Amino acid sequence: MPIYYSLSLFKKVSVKILDCPVSPLVEILIGLLKLLRPPEWTKSLGNMLIAYIAATGFTGTLDWGLLFWGFLAVGPLLWGGLYTLNDVADFEKDQKHDVKKNRPIPSGLVSPNTGFILFMITTIASFAIGFFIVQKTLFVLCLAAMLVNQLLYTLKPFELKKKLFMDFISGSLINPFFRFYSGWFLAMDAFNAPLELVVFVIAIQFGGYSLYRLASKKHEEELNYKSSVVVFGEEKIRMAAYIAIIFAGAAYFLATFNGVLPFKYFFLGAASLVAFPLYVGALQNPQEMNMRFAYNLIYAHYALFIIGFVALAYLG
Predict the structure, then answer these.
(1) Which one of 216, 222, 239, 280 is most buried, counting C-beta atoms within 10 A?
(2) Could you give the CA distance from residue 37 to residue 180 in angstroms, rounded to a whole number?
(3) Residue 1: inside a domain
(4) Whole domain around residue 58: which residue ranges?
């Protein structure tokens, strides 16, 4: 009986807590966290871990402290700030988008000025960690390269995201390259990562980025963008995405056969293919895909892949 009454009391208290309105301050703090887009950090973490584990020879002797600070600088701080800046720059356009209008700035929860201040704070903090904690020149160079590239991608008069070819070069080739090398430089001091791993990281994200952009094709047409997805159309961009994904898979499995990756990683790649049926709808008709479901699926899949990649490094 005491257990029954305890559970009943817990249920009543829980209901009251859940029914309580969230204070404006807490709501704004949640909005600021959403601006940093935590799920997106998995891209930085995955790229960095793959690179760092490879650079340390798959020995499992990882400096987790160094990796923590490096990831904090790249993912939550630098890229969190850059995502925020993108929302600041585009909030008026995003208010007309079916999905993006619910983001903190377009919805009015967070002001553009507050978003810009958040961008400045996180960016400064990112470089402070690079200079004073990580203390690796090439790592800081990666931070600078990603910052400059994303400023060119986002801000006027450049706005590379609107320009033919440059949107894909800036958004899906340059960024994953430097995310990867920011992890590599935690252990190595040269641009000497195996080509197969670099191709895998860039190609898989090029494919995903292409399909993501197709989901916004109609919106970009309404805004009169002359971007790649608008100019080339759905069929060509979708084909480019398919080819990139195939290249990524080929590069990964080639790496397991030629010794770049220990052969045990072949089975991790094979296991990842089990989720392929879940992507069929998005691959066939990306403009009609459920963006929230697709995001959650991709992030969950990538997180499991990262866990498997790290675990295999410790198996010897």
Answers:
(1) 216
(2) 19
(3) no
(4) 33-311
Return all residues near 177 (Cβ < 8 A) that are at least 6 apart. Answer: 198, 201, 202
What the block records as the tokens of 278 is 């879940």
Nearest CA among 38, 69, 37, 39 for reference residue 52: 69
Q: What is the rounded distance in angstroms from the CA atom of residue 106 to the CA atom of residue 20? A: 25
- Kindly report the CATH number assigned to the domain that includes residue 115: 1.10.600
- Asked if residue 17 is part of any domain, the answer here is no
Which residue, among 243, 247, 245, 225, has the nearest Cα to 235 in the 3D structure?
A: 243
Q: What is the pLDDT of residues 108-167, one digit of tens each?
A: 999 999 999 999 999 999 999 999 999 999 999 999 999 999 999 999 999 999 999 999
Alpha helices (H) in 225-275, listed in sequence order: 228-257, 264-272
Render pLDDT for 221-254 as a digit per residue (tens, 0 to 9): 888 889 999 999 888 998 998 899 999 999 999 9
Q: What is the pTM of this model?
A: 0.88
Measured distance CA(141)–CA(171) in Å, rounded: 18
| C-alpha dihedral sign at 275, 276, 280, 282 | positive
Q: How far apart are CA 291 and CA 180, in angstroms?
A: 25
Q: 120-153 burial, b if ≥16 CB within 10 A, otherwise e?
A: eebbebbbebbeeebebeebbebbebbbebbebb
191: in domain: yes
Tell the burial category of 300 from Cβ atoms under 10 Å away from its Cβ (0-12, 13-18, 19+).
middle
